[in-house]
Structure formats: structure tokens, C-alpha cells
Model the fold of this input.
Amino acid sequence: MKCPYCEYLESKVVDSRPAGDGSSIRRRRECPQCGRRFTTYEQVEVVPLVVIKKDGKRQAYNRQKLLNGVLRACEKTPVTLAQMEMLVMEVEVALHNRPEEGEVSSTIIGEMVMEKLKALNDIAYVRFASVYREFKDVSTFLEELQGLLGNKEK
Done:
């Protein structure tokens, strides 16, 4: 690490400890050239997610937008806010763990959310699916319900 005072290219770490919420490391360093000490912070570089929408447009992933969709789907159901936040967090972890870094289709995100909602609450699942899959008429809605009922009988 380059010394900010004399610009010597080497320094030694005197002390390391977690900083803030534990997502970064605070390091005290000392320059062997001028003897002055300085602090650096090291943190994991997170690759930002870009969502490819159905119309082909790209936009930055927005956690709040996803959480709002789940909140609307779970309205007036026994699903707690903690469960909804856990669902969103699990989807985010799965997205960041995918081998394809950087870009993800909104279709993949929607399918992940529907899969988790199906296990959490049937009503929330159907509500989310009706918006996500853009049911055009009652028959497509009934097909989805029959598929859900068929899975419950097994």
C-alpha cells in the first residue's frame, strides 16, 4: 500500500480489526520510509446486478422494488415482514451465487420469488403469479389454481 505522506510504495500492517458491521476490515499501517502511520479499509467488491426486463431494457437491481412486490402479494395474509425480508434475501443470495455474474433476466427473478412464495403461502403465490405471468383471462387463472391444487393433493 502506497504511503499517503511520502508516497513510498511499501507499508507494513500494524493492526487489523473488523470495521462497522463486519463487512470491512480496518488496517493500521506504518510506512518504513517516513515512519508515519495511516489507516486503510478493505472490503469485498460486490458486482452490481443488472436486470434485463421483458422488453429488453436493462436497469439496476432494486431490492426495494422486489420487496414491494412481495409485500403486495402477501397483503392480508399471515406472512410476516421478517419472512418476506428473508425471502428477498434468499433470492438475492441465489442471484449473487449464480455462475453468470452481472446480468440476470427478470424472468429468473420472478420464477425464484414464485417458487419461494408457493412454499410460504398459496394466496400470496397466486397474487404474485397473476401479476408476474400477466393472466389475460379467468381460464389461465384457473389453470394456475388447478396446478396448485393438484400439487397439494400429492
Observations:
- The mean pLDDT is 87.
